Structure formats: structure tokens, C-alpha cells
Amino acid sequence: MQAYRFALDLTPGQERAVLMNAGAARVAHNWALAYVKAVMDQRLAERSYGVVAADLTPAIGWSLPALRKAWNGAKADVAPWWAECSKEAFNTGLDALARGLKNWSDSRSGRRAGRRAGFPRFKSRHRSTPNIRFTTGVIRVEPDRKHVTLPRLGRLKLHESARKLARRLEAGTARILSATVRKVAGRWHVAFCVEVERLIGLPSLPGVVVGVDVGVTHLAALSTGELVRNPRHLSAGGRRLRRLNRQMSRRVRPDRRLGQRPSKRWRRARARLARAHARVANLRGDGLHQLTAQLSRKYGTVVVEDLNVVGMLRNRRLARHIADAGLAQLRRQLGYKTAWNGGHLVMADRWYPSSKTCSGCGIVKAKLALSERTYTCSACGLVLDRDLNAARNLAALVCEVTDARSSQESLNGRGADHKTRLGGLVAVKRQPGTASAGETGTVLPQGRAPDHVLVWRS
Ligand SMILES: [Zn+2]
Questions:
Q1: Edge-to-edge, what's the strand order for the sheet holding 187-196?
Q2: HSE-up of 88 (CA within 13 Å, CB side)?
Q3: Going by DSSP bridges, is the β-strand pair 383-385/374-376 parallel, antiparallel, or unpaired?
Q4: Residue 220 alpha carbon to ligand 1 centre in Å
Q5: 291-312 per-position pLDDT tens digit
Q6: Which residues are annotated as catalytic?
Q7: DSSP one-letter string for 264-293
Q8: What is the mean pLDDT of residues 412-427?
Q9: 10 Å Cβ neighbour count for 449?
Q10: Are residues 177 and 193 in contact, defined by beta-carbon separation less than 8 angstroms?
């Protein structure tokens, strides 16, 4: 499964049609949410009066089919204009609600990891991103590769060529599952969710292990000695963003307490700011994609550190820079791209002291301030860039683990001989009750404290 996203050039008429359908999605979402809430409140009130469970107002299902059934029963009253819109529009809204409700209830019962998911909220015309997803009907990329055809909306012009997707469709190695039209920062996009048949290739250096230390000073330091600059797009675009923010703050903003509606100039200023932010995000995304594509095409095994990005974002001094570097995104992209290219991504446990360890002799420093940019070893006299030292440690970690369970001779990123077994086994922490399904086998990296973990992600 893969997404292909293209920018659209809609005519004013087409834009109206999309907005109408996106509005219909919102209406269905809000109606169903109000319905679900009303039933919940009713049951709660009945319980407080001491009504027995059997006599309560029947609960309604939160699944998409249940919500759709309820909507289809009510749509003639709620939205007499329903026939003017695509049924996929209502489906989009109800699907969003069904997922929201599921996330909320899973989160409450502990079945969902991560931050607490709140109860779904009503969608506002002013706040929500207009979108509509088509899963059935005619979804097609036209032979000229400059147009797409979607149900109800018809032929839409693309702003860019869809050749990459079209080639796959023509070769029969891809199948479109759905198409979503969405407005992001004032620009319309269509995103195809595509099932792709992929020939897993081989990286150009299949036996080579590269350690990648991601950070803020350098976006990435490779154990081969290469340093990838952090472009810091947010800081670079900072002046423009600050100016636009200032501009917006001088316009008449909406104020609920005063019943103040926003001025047109405020709306325009907000749109300009959104475009500037989108540009920063696009530049960042492009740089990350290029870096991860290069790494996964070249190296057989990529080792990164499992950074606690969410935790780091809580640090107010670091947060903006961490988010700007897109560290979590980098790791995610490496995960699927190494798999596409026939390589492996190995994650070192987040408590592995990659920065504090000497890559020459293996001694671990007790303390290393963030401001120390150069690693100086008092034991063997090694002097090396801090991030490069960490990258070398990460690469060496894999060599150590795989030495013990080797079957193949290979060469690592530093040119040293070692043995690598590609694919398969996972080295995880041996701790009762923490092993997750699918992760088996336990090998502790030799010569390290026992709580350092390596996990194969292939
Ligand atoms: Zn040393």
C-alpha cells in the first residue's frame, strides 16, 4: 500500500462541487455525532434514575455500517438535498466519526497506545480541512497523465504529471483503492491510496552496515564519515513567518466572547501564513525523502537510534529544532524504504549510550554535555566529531550482535571485516511480560550493559 499525491488545478465550478461534497461529509459527521451523544446522555440519565439495564434506551453501534444505516434512515429529514451529493461524501464523514469513536473508546480501555484520544468533536466549516474520499466508482488516471477522473466530480486537471502512477497502472502492478480530494494550505490535492506490487531490489552495497546518528546540529551523521547538513527550513523561513504572523495579529480576528467575526483581511493574512508554513513543510519533506532514499538504496543495513521524539518535543528549548528536523519522519521513511530496497533497518534501544561510548576502545563516559561537539577519549586518545562517533557506535553494534550468529562474510561501513546475517532474528530485551508478538529470540550485545536492545525491523 502506497499513497500517490498530486496537486490539482480546479476550475471555480469544480471547486464548488468539491466543497459542496466536503460540506455534506461534515453534515453527516456532525449529525451522527449529535445522535451518538444524545443516546449516550439519555442512557446515562436513565441509569441515574435507576432504570434497569433491560429497559434502557437501546445503545447504537459505533461502527461505520451502523452509522451509515442510521444516517440513511434520517437523511431525508436531516438533509433533503442529499441526492445532489455523492454517497461517498456522507461515507467520508461517517467513517471519520466511526474511527474517532473507536480511537476514543480504545484509548479509554487501554487498547490503544500513545496519547489519550479525546471524544470526537463537531467539525466546523471554518476550522476543518475540507476533504472527500472516493472508494467506489470511476477512479482513473487519464492517458494524457495530466487529468484524473473521479465519480461525480468528473475530469479534473492535475497541476503536475501523474506519470509515476500511470506507468504502474499501465504495467498492471498497481491498483487504486481510493482517492481523496483535500485542500491543504489553500491548494487542492488528490491522494490515491494504491496497492502496489513491488519487486524488492537489492541495495548497491548489500553487505554494508551504516550507522546513522540523527540530530539537530547535523541532520544525519553517517558512520562512513559523511555529515548531512541540517537545512533548518523553519529557522530560515523564520523572518517571513514572523512578519506574516505579525500582519495577521493586526487584523480583526474572530472573537467568540465579543461575537466578533473575522475580517476579510484577517482571512487573507491567515491564508498567506498557511502557505508559508506549507512551503517550509514541503522543503523539509523533500530533503528528508531524498536523504532516506539515498541511504536505503545504497546500504544493506541501516542502524538508527530509537529516539524518544515525543519526549524530546516536551523540552521547550529543543522542541522547535527537533520538529523542524523531522526526526520521527526520517526514521519512519527509513523503515519502509529499506524494506522496498531489500535492506534492513535496525533500531538501537533508546538507552544505548551511542554518544557517550568511545568508538575506538569502547569505554563509556559517565557524562557528556550536549555542548561538547567533539568526542575526546581519555583512554585511547581518540578525537572525533561527536555525531560521527555516535554513528560509528551504532554501526558497530550490529556487527557485534551479528558476529555471534553469523553466516555470511561482509564488510561494514568502516571497512572492517565482520560477519553479517541478513534478515530474520531479533535481539530484544529479555524481560518477562514485555515481549511483543512477532519478536522472538534474545541476544544481548556483547560487552555492553545488559539493557541495551537491538531490534531488527525488516
Ligand atoms: Zn577510546
A1: 131-134, 174-184, 187-196, 2-9, 154-158, 147-150, 140-141
A2: 18
A3: antiparallel
A4: 22
A5: 999 999 999 999 988 776 666 6
A6: 213, 305, 387
A7: HHHHHHHHHHHHHHHHHHHHHHHHHHHHHH
A8: 37
A9: 11
A10: yes
